[in-house]
Specification:
about 120 residues; two-stranded antiparallel ribbon; globular
Length: about 120
C-alpha cells in the first residue's frame, strides 16, 4: 500500500515535470525535490478542494456535458500555484492546458507503472 502511494506520487511528480518542460506559461523553479513537493501539494489540493469544487459545479458540468470539469481542474492547478512560490502559471489557458497535460501524462505513466502488486 505504501509502495503504491509512493509510486503514484512519483508518477505525478514526473507528470508535472513533463508539463513544465512542454508548456510555456507553466513554470517550476527548482529540481526534483520541488517537483515532489508540488506533487504532494497538488494531491492535497485535489483531495481537499477537488470534491467540493466538483460538487458545487455539478450543474454546469452536466450542462456542458462534462467540459466544465476541465475548468475546475484548471482552478485546482491555479490554487496550487497560488499556494506554492515554486510554481507559476501565467493565466487561465496555461492552467487549463496544464491540467489536461497532467491528466494525460499521469494516465500514460500509470500504465507503465502498474497500480497493483
Amino acid at each position: 500500500m505504501l509502495i503504491r502511494l509512493l509510486l503514484r506520487w512519483l508518477v505525478l511528480a514526473a507528470a508535472i515535470a513533463l508539463t513544465a518542460w512542454l508548456l510555456p506559461g507553466f513554470n517550476v523553479e527548482g529540481g526534483w525535490g520541488t517537483y515532489l513537493w508540488l506533487a504532494f501539494l497538488f494531491s492535497l489540493v485535489n483531495v481537499i478542494l477537488g470534491p467540493l469544487l466538483h460538487l458545487l459545479s455539478l450543474p454546469l458540468t452536466i450542462l456542458t456535458l462534462g467540459l466544465f470539469a476541465l475548468v475546475v481542474n484548471a482552478a485546482l492547478v491555479g490554487i496550487t500555484a497560488w499556494i506554492s512560490s515554486d510554481l507559476s502559471v501565467d493565466g487561465f489557458f496555461p492552467a487549463l492546458f496544464a491540467a489536461i497535460l497532467i491528466a494525460i501524462f499521469t494516465a500514460a505513466l500509470s500504465v507503465v507503472v502498474p497500480d497493483r502488486d
